[in-house]
Fold:
Amino acid sequence: MATIQAASEQRPVIQLVNVNKTYPNGVQGLKNLNISIGQGEFVIVIGLSGAGKSTMLRSINRLNEITSGDILIDGQSITRAKGKALRDIRRNIGMIFQSFNLVKRSSVLRNVLTGRVAYHSTLNMMLGIFPKKDKEIAYDALKRVNLAEKVYTRADELSGGQQQRVSIARALAQEPKIILADEPVASLDPITTERVMDDLLRINRELGITVLVNLHSIELARKYGDRIIGLRGGELVFNGPTAEATDSTLRAIYGEAILEEEDNKGEA
Amino acid sequence: MIPNQTTLPKKTGKVKFFTTLSMLLIIIVVSAIITDVDIWQLLTNLGQAGYILEQMSHPDWSYVSVVLGPLVETIRMAILGTAFGAILAFPFSLYVARNMESSKAVSGVLRFINNIIRTIPELLLAAVFVAVFGIGPFAGIIALAIFSFGMVTKLFFESIETIDEGPIEALKSSGANRLEIMRFGVIPQVISYYWNFVLFAFEINIRASTVLGYIGAGGIGIFLSRALKQVRYDRVAVIILIIFVVVLAIDYVSNKVREKLS
Ligand SMILES: Nc1ncnc2c1ncn2[C@@H]1O[C@H](COP(=O)(O)OP(=O)(O)O)[C@@H](O)[C@H]1O
Ligand SMILES: [Mg+2]
Structure:
């Protein structure tokens, strides 16, 4: 029933099959998307603001409901999953947000540990008891993003870039198969942007985690992506290796605006 | 510094202030007429106040040992009442806050009930419970618990409604269930508000519990009422002083703790 595209030779871990999403106000967020993403790929989703990038990403872990079609994670439909089955699929998908979404008053360790919550019984979690192994996992995750020394710092005492890397560590603590990042660098300066993107790339290469990143910037997309997916008005308008996403191709699809996004980013 | 200051438009605040003031005066005069306040009687009674004050300036210190027990009971009533109310208010607030994805119908009904509870004065509650459970501290504790519950719930659920939704989304996306989302995404954001409101309720309850005895709901109030009836202003002075010291001390400590919390 799913059409697996030639672009991903590997076993697909994310498959979108005829996905449509219409918001209650009638806006069509996604239009008949068919996309397949293979194990270990680093894919970047580009498009002007309002193109449907966030809608697509948030549909993959079902923070958004889709209107029709199906989304498969590792061959299993998340669209039809319910209750515990849905939460088990989500546990395998880490998510990184533009606004970091940390608990600002809690310590860095506490924040990273929340990535472990779904692995344990609700009762233990209500009592706040994490096994020792979890603290090790959390600490290892922090080491991966070079923030080991901040483990007991309060989250709101960190810079934006550091907070985003804590949120990457939180996603890593989930030991996920997939990481989704929705404009992870949109509120960061160029230098911290590079650090965050480097961290994501390293995680992809070293741990084999499939990474899907929404970006405004073509330049960053070209620098980091194995593959680029282009959206426009909720439709798939480009899907291919980074090398094929040349200026002239993109200009033909989006016009001049997409190449100028650099200058007016900041909108989600 | 700023050129052309004369172009700055005048504040309209003054006009508003005088309008409010004259409205207030009119309201006061009208209500005095309606309720038959006798200004003359008010003034003649001032003489009696002088007598009372004179009596009060010689407190009967031996009475301290008598009211110490009831004083402790008063404090205990306030503590228990606050504690019961606050413990109930915690899950209740988490449920009724509009951003907590609870059943809209159920939480609407619960909020409505809470609003009704909050309109009933504490003394009235206590009077009802004295009638139901008989004279004694139990009635007072229940009244204080219900009052604290209403107040803490209202303040707490409203502060829950202002939290950052980001962590909730992050937890949801990691596969956490509803309780776990509350435990790690919501509670850490609001717990210091909660303690703040509980202490605030306790401060109010300490004051209220001293009066509750008046209507037979336990504590030091009954001694105050007795001393007044016996025209023993030397004892009234002792009781008022003791209450004053206790309220002041508890307010001080509570304020210090609340400063630490925020
Ligand atoms: N909650 C919502 N309700 C209604 N329309 C929405 C909502 N979220 C997004 N949209 C609309 O869906 C389209 C795609 O939005 P989005 O996925 O956020 O785009 P992007 O992330 O690429 O900027 C836009 O037209 C946007 O206005
Ligand atoms: Mg977006």
Chain B touches chain A at residues 164, 166-167, 169-177, 179-180, 183-185, 188-189, 192 (CB under 8 Å).
